[in-house]
Amino acid sequence: MKKRKSSVLNFFIVLALLNFMNFLNEIPVYSQEAGDHAEIGRYGSSSVRHQELGNFSEYILALGPVRNDSVSESLKIEGKVMMTLYEGPSDASSYEIYHAYRDLLVSGQYDILYSCSGSECGTGFLSPVYQLAPFAYNYGYNNSAPITNGSQDFSYLITARKSIGEKTTYVSLIVSQGWFKFPVYKLDVIEVQKSGGKISSIQMAKEDSPPVRVSSDRNLMKDEDNGVLRFGFHMSGDSYFGLLLRARHFEFVIKGYAELFDGFPEGFRPDDMLMIGGHISYLFRPWEKADIGAGFDLRQGISVTGNIKYVQYIDVGPMLSFNYRPGKHFVLSGLFYPFWLNTRETDADDSFSLAVQIPRASVALGFLF
Q1: Half-sphere exposure of 323 (CA within 13 A, CB side)
Q2: Distance CA 273, CA 236 (A)
Q3: Sign of CA dihedral 19, 21, 27, 33
Q4: CA 20 to 30 Å from 202, out of 148, 193, 242, 283?
Q5: Structurally, how many domains does the chain consist of?
Q6: pTM (2 decimals)?
Q7: Do 132 and 83 form a contact (C-beta atoms < 8 A)?
Q8: What is 50-106 written as a DSSP string?
Q9: Range with the lowest mean pLDDT among 121-135, 163-177, 200-214?
Q10: How far is CA 200 from the centre of its chain?
Q11: In this predicted structure, what is the pLDDT of residue 140?
């Protein structure tokens, strides 16, 4: 007797390898893309976690402590802005970094407009101060949480200014520790200036116009982040194939597979089963291209042919998933099922059974349009 499953496993493996190659090509190299300010550099062996530049932007400086969840005194300026989130050395303390920058600013003839540490800055000061000048790109709070969720007792703030002739430069520094095992700090340098940008209109003949690219890979991934529901296909290593619906904090899959037999002995006919079901998960989004899902999976078995007719054939259990999106179309998932509840009942009398199945895991690939 031979058992056959309608499996897409080989196809899945090929796509997973292609997906992994795409992932390798898209890993950002921050050391090549980001740099330090010429006058105010990084501390020791710190590394750049995120950086944003603006030739002419608005910036709000903190000049006083936080009271009633807002900064009591602030100053709005305009100019060339460089905002950088650094990961400090693992063997450094947040105070060590704060003290080094304070010494650097003083020796560089900067006036310290405001400086504080811990409770001196006000209760819960990290988030209100960060919100004065947040990063524009903050997927999954990945660029704000290391600052805003740090320990207030090990956090520090400096606002400084230097004016030489007509050139005025401001520095804003927030140092925090507690979200990671190493300290992090947001170092912003603002060179005050007037806008030098001009508005112009360039016209060209229609036949000379280049094709317009409507969206980019990042924009398509952002659709999901903004709550847009995306549709696609789901394929898993346990032979299930189905339809996938995905949004920012939601995933729903309808899936199924057929278990068929042939070559059975005369007088015995095993059960051909059709398994249908689905899973639903809530997605937590701590990272830019990855999320963690928590939900449950339900599967219903239907007898197609065979000597046994099932009245109940149900598998149900919780499901955890780790999902990575290397590009605009693919979702690569690791699935873990802590336990399964299996109910079985046939058309025979007293045939009901309930069992608990040990944990198991699988992998899956989703394709999104």
Answers
A1: 29
A2: 18
A3: negative
A4: 193
A5: 2
A6: 0.52
A7: no
A8: EEEEEEEEEEEEE-S-EETTEESSEEEEEEEEEEEEEEPPTT--HHHHHHHHHHHHH
A9: 200-214
A10: 38
A11: 63
The b/e string for 232-270 (b: 16+ C-beta within 10 A; e otherwise) is: bbbbbbbbbbbebbbbbebbbbebbbbbbbeeeeeeeeb
- Write a three-state SS string for 259-294: EEEECCCCCCCCCEEEEEEEEEEEEECCCCCEEEEE
Same structural domain for residues 13 and 51?
no
Q: Mind listing the pLDDT tens digit for each residue in 320-354? A: 999 998 877 899 999 999 999 999 888 888 888 89
Encode pLDDT of 81-132 as tens digits: 999 999 999 999 999 999 999 999 999 999 999 999 999 999 999 999 999 9
Alpha-carbon gap, residue 325 to 39, rounded angstroms = 38
Question: Which is higher by pLDDT, 188 or 266?
Answer: 188
**So what's the pLDDT on residue 312?**
86
Residue at token pair 């898209």? 26
Tally the residues of the chain: 369
DSSP 20: H
- The three-class DSSP label of residue 302 is strand
15 and 105 part of one domain:
no
Domain match, 359 and 318 both: yes
Q: Alpha helix (H) ranges present in the chain?
A: 9-26, 30-33, 94-107, 126-132, 145-148, 217-225
Q: Would you state the pLDDT for residue 23?
A: 45
Residue 331 CA, distance from chain mean position: 13
Does residue 35 belong to any structural domain of this protein? no
Q: How many CB atoms lie within 10 A of CB 307?
A: 11
Residues 228 and 330 in one domain: yes
Residue type, 325: R
Average confidence score pLDDT of the chain: 82
CA 21 – CA 29 distance, rounded (Å)? 16
